[in-house]
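Quick one: structure for this chain?
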Amino acid sequence: MDYLNAFWVGGLICALIQILLDKTKLMPGRVMVLLVCSGALLSAIGIYKPFAEFAGAGATVPLLGFGNTLWKGMKDAIDQNGLIGLFMGGFTACAAGVSAALIFSYLASWVFKPKMKE
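Got it. Here's what it folds into:
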């Protein structure tokens, strides 16, 4: 059942975002920022944790999950280090994921030899 919930929730999130992109004039970058901020906001008001427990990877893999991770990292760092944690918590929480994305995309660029579109 966990796989089914992850599949339909993740698919629903992606479908709603695709409709948002198709029916509005919002640029993709702004929609991505909206998703990250929405994930952080939902975490701050306590809605995201039960949602993520229900949906699993369907909720944590999309950009909403990245916002949730940023929020949790900042909250933990603020609890441990005070106000300075506001500035370092997000970096600490997401460092491994962002580093992996950069390293693997760089390696993929060596394998596939990307070219600029004309």
